[in-house]
């Protein structure tokens, strides 16, 4: 069977988590910083290490079959690729930001103003949607210093913690688009058996990340209240303990309602609660 090729970021914010995700899928490969391509030893896949901006184009042209890249980069490239799976990391928001003392108050106040950005395509679409005529200054880096240098009245850039805006005397003004890392594929690849296998593994890793394995002890008389709180993958496993009248309950709960559930379980008589990470969940 012919190997598929997946393009991931060579270095930068998405590199480590992309490599980790593939390793968690059981793929065995060397991650040399110097190499541009590596072969997975135990799966029909080659990994290309690229600048993130090049990934959507490589996938659209079929040079790579798959890619892991931020939605912001995909949209800006306008490459024709298929979204296969949201990956839950690299989360950020493309925002318009303005100087702290700016007179701009409303979106329509952007009319006639200049906005510096590395995302002219996405910004233009946003401005068109709100029928705003602004002057887009396309620059490739250090966008946040543009207003201070007198180059623009506002910026449109990626924000995650907001620290960079603050340290440059800027404040967030409008959200343009949220983004996270996405697995993309070239068109027509959807039914490929290697992709299906890889997708299944990725989804089982993502599911496991959202859940915890919980073991707790409870007196048998309190078991009905405990099982009511727990809705596991199926129903919880109940195992008798050496001590008469006591059982251990094993189940899986989602990260989201973790603390809420733990407190309810304690109130319902659960003791010795042990919480463990899960590596994979195969449905
Ligand atoms: O070299 P290469 O071209 O591959 O990488 P790059 O330098 O273009 O991208 P990189 O590694 O910085 O980011 C890769 C992807 O990570 C982006 O395309 C986004 O999808 C995602 N991402 C998540 C971010 C951020 N968070 C982020 N905070 N990308 C950039 N930033 C920058 C932002 O541009 C700004 O300068 O971080 C600064 C703001 O951060 P805060 O925390 O101060 O708000
Ligand atoms: Zn880049």
Describe the secondary structure blueprint for this structure.
Layout: E1 4-9, H1 15-24, E2 37-39, E3 45-50, H2 55-60, E4 66-70, H3 71-77, E5 82-86, E6 92-99, E7 114-117, H4 120-129, E8 135-138, E9 154-159, H5 163-167, E10 170-179, E11 181-185, H6 193-209, E12 211-219, H7 223-229, E13 237-240, E14 246-254, H8 258-267, E15 271-277
Parallel strand pairs: 1-3, 1-4, 7-8, 7-9
Antiparallel strand pairs: 2-3, 4-11, 5-11, 6-9, 6-10, 12-14, 12-15, 13-14
Bound molecules: phosphoribosyl ATP (PRT) and zinc ion.
Q: What sort of overall outline do the alpha carbons produce when their principal axes are compared? A: flat
CATH architecture of the largest domain: 3-Layer(aba) Sandwich
Biggest sheet layout: 6 strands, mixed
Global structural class: alpha/beta
Distance between the termini: 26 Å
* Mean pLDDT, all residues: 94
Bound molecules: phosphoribosyl ATP, zinc ion
CATH topology of the largest domain: D-Maltodextrin-Binding Protein, domain 2
Q: How many helical elements? A: 8
- Strand residues, percent: 25-35%
């Amino acid at each position: 069977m012919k190997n598929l090729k997946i393009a991931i970021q060579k270095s930068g914010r998405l590199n480590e988590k992309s490599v980790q995700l593939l390793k968690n899928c059981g793929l065995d490969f060397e991650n040399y910083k110097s190499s541009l391509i590596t072969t997975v030893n135990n799966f029909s896949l080659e990994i290309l290490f690229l600048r993130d901006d090049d990934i959507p184009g490589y996938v659209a042209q079929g040079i790579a079959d798959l890619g892991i890249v931020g939605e912001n980069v995909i949209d800006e490239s306008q490459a024709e690729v298929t979204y296969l799976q949201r990956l839950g990391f690299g989360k950020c928001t493309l925002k318009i930001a303005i100087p702290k003392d700016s007179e701009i108050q409303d979106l329509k106040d952007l009319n006639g103003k200049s906005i510096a950005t590395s995302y002219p395509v996405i910004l233009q679409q946003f401005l068109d949607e709100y029928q705003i005529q602004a002057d887009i200054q396309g620059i490739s880096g250090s966008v946040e210093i543009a207003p201070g240098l007198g180059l623009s009245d506002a910026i449109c850039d990626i924000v995650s913690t907001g620290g960079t805006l603050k340290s440059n005397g800027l404040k967030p003004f409008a959200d343009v688009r949220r983004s996270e890392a996405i697995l993309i594929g070239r068109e027509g690849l959807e039914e490929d058996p290697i992709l299906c296998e890889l997708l299944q593994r990725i989804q089982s890793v993502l599911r496991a990340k959202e859940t915890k394995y919980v073991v707790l002890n409870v007196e048998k008389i309190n078991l009905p209240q405990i099982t009511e709180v727990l809705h596991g993958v199926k129903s919880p496993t109940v195992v008798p303990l050496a001590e008469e009248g006591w059982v251990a309950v094993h189940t899986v709960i989602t990260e989201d309602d973790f603390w809420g559930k733990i407190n309810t379980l304690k109130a319902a008589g659960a003791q010795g609660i042990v919480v463990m990470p899960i590596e994979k969940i195969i449905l």
